[in-house]
Amino acid sequence: MYSVLITDDEPTIREGLRNLIEWEKYGFQVADVASNSREALQKFKQYAPNLLIMDIRMPGMSGLELIQALRNYSDIPFHVLILSGYADFAYAKKAINLHIAGYLLKPVDEEELTEHLIQLKTVLDAERSDKLRADMHEGSKKELLVKSLLASGDQVEAGHYQADAETAELVWDGYEIVLITLQGRNRREIDSAGRTMFKQACSQRFDDAERGISFWMEPYFCLMLKENLHHPLTKKKIYEELSALAQAHDMTFAAASGGSFKQLHEIALSYEKAAKLLDLRFFYAADQLITDDFAPVGIPVQHENEEPLNAASIVDKLYFAIKIGQEEVVEKLVSDWGQTLIEKGYSEESIKLQFTKLITLVRGRLLESGPEIEVRKQPLSEGILEIYKQSPYDSLKRYVIQLLNGFMPSEGNASMEIHMKKMIDLIERNSHENLKLDTLADVFNYNSAYLGKVFKKTTGEYFNTFVDKVRIRKAKELLNQGVKVAQVAEKVGFANVDYFYSKFRKYEGVSPSSFRKK
């Protein structure tokens, strides 16, 4: 959608234009309105609209003076439609040197306005395509040089690339490599479309803002940033930005930084450090950018040095703890066992294997103990598969604890039914919020994978699908009340109108606009 700012000192004109047509139908969205030129100047800086529709005569700064001020202020292209009365038309012709897209006589005719919008959308689409091609060409030069330096490792001499670096505008104060691994929902591999969308989103966030460059260099997605990530707040900010981008595309990720270096040819060192840290991501706490400033929960040694452990004692203790419903004891036993494995130098895969054996042994004991144990209702194969999907270590530990607690007698599980009812009620009443399964898992103190399975079993829907359907149901109610499509999207919790259109069509088979006209 292209954004529009309407400026007129008459309230009836401003609001009349806002509601005159269905802007989304023509590819536009009214970002805001302004009552005078100075207010318009402020809101232009806030919204950077693609199209301004403004009165040519206003108190204080005139429309022409405003256009000139905006041209001087911004290098970003924008288009203008002038509003004028018959008496102002000769005056409006003076605006021809300011590259005005067209004139609209008051009172504005709906058909005339839509004709202008159709023409402008064609122009804006072409401008966007031209900019994309230019950006891709410019970006490819930078990317090729950086990839070449990374492939050459530490064998590059400083002077050999200087001219190329200056041509590609890569002479910065510092360089820091951040490596990212991405997975789709349920830890599936990302397809080519997903890779492209994530790259485009990162390019807008980092490349277009001249904060660095982003590119794929298998097996990682890479960022080379200008900013030094040494400060904790800077690390947190970068992680939150990456998290928002990943969540917007239904992805999970881990990221590590190799530290900042002064010379471009040293980026291979930053890359190497980041890759080593990322290989050990299982042993670092979740929800952070991994750097060498943070201590891992443990570092594995070589596989052949792993000491054999006797699990009989902990199996006995877990068996009795589950029999009497002691969740706190189960949590402590699992935590202690995991810490022992880490201190003994067990690798990620070996730790998961040991937990798998532990659960299998405990379940075997419980199956022999009597019918009151819930273990008979638990399909072990699904639980074991989920163990191997858990990362980092803290997530694995939490999942194992919840899996074992799920074996407790039925009175110990009664609270889950209550949690499901609370969770469904929370979604119904807060569907407009940014709801995520991971967030609710923390709220209810459950592993997100486990909570997602229970939610699916309770409702018959995956969490995201359930939230989507609640939002669409509420959107239909608002559309039936005559609320504008863009307002409906915002009210029910969709990030933007285009995404709302795609979801609505997916579940209802028609667009929101068509549904409202029924």
Automatic annotation (TrEMBL):
<dbReference type="InterPro" id="IPR001789">
    <property type="entry name" value="Sig_transdc_resp-reg_receiver"/>
</dbReference>
<dbReference type="InterPro" id="IPR009057">
    <property type="entry name" value="Homeodomain-like_sf"/>
</dbReference>
<keyword id="KW-0902">Two-component regulatory system</keyword>
<dbReference type="InterPro" id="IPR018060">
    <property type="entry name" value="HTH_AraC"/>
</dbReference>
<keyword id="KW-0238">DNA-binding</keyword>
<keyword id="KW-0597">Phosphoprotein</keyword>
<dbReference type="GO" id="GO:0003700">
    <property type="term" value="F:DNA-binding transcription factor activity"/>
</dbReference>
<keyword id="KW-0805">Transcription regulation</keyword>
<feature type="domain" description="HTH araC/xylS-type">
    <location>
        <begin position="421"/>
        <end position="518"/>
    </location>
</feature>
<dbReference type="InterPro" id="IPR051552">
    <property type="entry name" value="HptR"/>
</dbReference>
<dbReference type="InterPro" id="IPR018062">
    <property type="entry name" value="HTH_AraC-typ_CS"/>
</dbReference>
<dbReference type="GO" id="GO:0005737">
    <property type="term" value="C:cytoplasm"/>
</dbReference>
<dbReference type="Pfam" id="PF00072">
    <property type="entry name" value="Response_reg"/>
</dbReference>
<dbReference type="InterPro" id="IPR011006">
    <property type="entry name" value="CheY-like_superfamily"/>
</dbReference>
<feature type="modified residue" description="4-aspartylphosphate">
    <location>
        <position position="55"/>
    </location>
</feature>
<dbReference type="InterPro" id="IPR020449">
    <property type="entry name" value="Tscrpt_reg_AraC-type_HTH"/>
</dbReference>
<dbReference type="Pfam" id="PF12833">
    <property type="entry name" value="HTH_18"/>
</dbReference>
<feature type="domain" description="Response regulatory">
    <location>
        <begin position="3"/>
        <end position="121"/>
    </location>
</feature>
<protein>
    <submittedName>
        <fullName>Response regulator transcription factor</fullName>
    </submittedName>
</protein>
<dbReference type="GO" id="GO:0000160">
    <property type="term" value="P:phosphorelay signal transduction system"/>
</dbReference>
<dbReference type="GO" id="GO:0043565">
    <property type="term" value="F:sequence-specific DNA binding"/>
</dbReference>
<keyword id="KW-0804">Transcription</keyword>
<keyword id="KW-0963">Cytoplasm</keyword>
